[in-house]
């Protein structure tokens, strides 16, 4: 299992990788892109992930949103630009928060968009403070999914929505090659659970009208891109590691995650779901 310090280290030391290989400087996104009939390019697929979540959760101008695991702020920028919503983004990575706040200042939207270093399992917000909790591929890095669900329930208003997308375990077969374990280790993923288990925990906490949407087919193109990127980057990465002995543990092996995640996906060991739950 990984601690907050580990997760912060992962993002702090691999942000340059996302900058180079995942269009971070333009999309401000560190997640998989959803490909559908509206998408014609990789960049559009990254934006589309946020747009799909925004539409499913029916974000409006009156919403106050917590982006739990906000990265460098891409979702918050989109939500404010398209729906004029108020967003607070939190991350355990100070480097990410500094980048996100800089973007908010540059766009002159700090009256409605802000970012803080904070643990989404233990926030400082009052009870029933938010209309929406948004979590894009961030809950996978928590070892205690139920603690996340409890905190979301506490800070959401009655009728508030939790919208998240993430990786979930399937029940097809055993992972004989340990693809999942290898993937988790290099991407600081603590553990995955099945969507059935997660939905059950949501309902036990008191969430109602829980809906699950399977987008595995729509992210396969992104997963394959990651796989190809890992193959292309393997030689230069290993050469860099050879001549730079002090390279950090995550930066040293980060590229391997693209290989492992695709191998695991090809064997139907995980799927990509969006879950919408109402308090």
Description of the structure:
- The protein is α/β, with parallel strands linked by helices and 279 residues long.
- The chain has a single domain, classed as 3-Layer(aba) Sandwich (Rossmann fold), CATH 3.40.50.150.
- It has 11 helices and 7 strands.
- A 7-stranded mixed sheet has the order 3-2-1-4-5-7-6, sandwiched between helices.
- The radius of gyration is 18 Å and the shape is globular.
- The protein starts with a helix and ends with a strand.
- The mean pLDDT is 95.
CATH class: Alpha Beta
Q: What distance separates the N and C termini? A: 29 Å
The biggest beta sheet is recorded as: 7 strands, mixed
Question: Based on the structure given, which CATH architecture is correct?
Answer: 3-Layer(aba) Sandwich
Shape field: globular
